């Protein structure tokens, strides 16, 4: 059975350059195997939820 780990990142976005920084950070995470599940816009920026498959697997009965 596949297993996953999760991470949450917050990005404060006020100017166009902040989007560039957000994109760069997400691309770095993507290179490490992380995938964005969803992103939510808030009053102060974006919260992104990420996941990646873990190396080990668990038996279905565990």
Q: How large is the count of helical segments? A: 1
- Overall shape: elongated
Provide the residue-averaged pLDDT: 90
What's the multimeric state? single chain
Helix content: 25-40%
Number of strands: 3
Which secondary-structure class do the elements indicate? Answer: alpha+beta
SS strand fraction: 35-45%
The unreliable regions are: none
- Main sheet characteristics: 3 strands, antiparallel
Number of domain modules = 1
Question: N-to-C terminal Cα separation, in Å?
Answer: 9 Å
Q: Please state the CA-atom Rg, rounded to the nearest Å.
A: 14 Å
Secondary-structure element string: EHEE
Strand order of the largest sheet: 1-3-2
Protein name: DUF4177 domain-containing protein
SSE inventory with pairings:
Layout (H helix, E strand, L loop, with lengths): L3 E9 L3 H16 L3 E7 L3 E9 L9
Description:
The radius of gyration is 14 Å and the shape is elongated. The chain has one domain. The longest helix is centred in the middle third of the chain and has 16 residues, at 16-31. The mean pLDDT is 90. It has one helix at residues 16-31; strands spanning 4-12, 35-41, 45-53. Strands 1-3-2 form a 3-stranded antiparallel β-sheet, with helices on one face. With 62 residues, it is an alpha+beta fold.
Quickly list its features.
62 residues; alpha+beta; three-stranded antiparallel beta sheet; 1 helix; elongated; DUF4177 domain-containing protein
């Amino acid at each position: 059975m596949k297993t996953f780990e999760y991470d949450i990142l917050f990005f404060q976005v006020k100017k166009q350059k902040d989007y560039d920084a957000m994109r760069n950070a997400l691309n770095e995470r993507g290179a490490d195997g992380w995938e964005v599940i969803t992103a939510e816009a808030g009053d102060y920026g974006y919260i992104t939820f990420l996941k990646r498959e873990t190396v080990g697997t668990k038996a279905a009965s565990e």
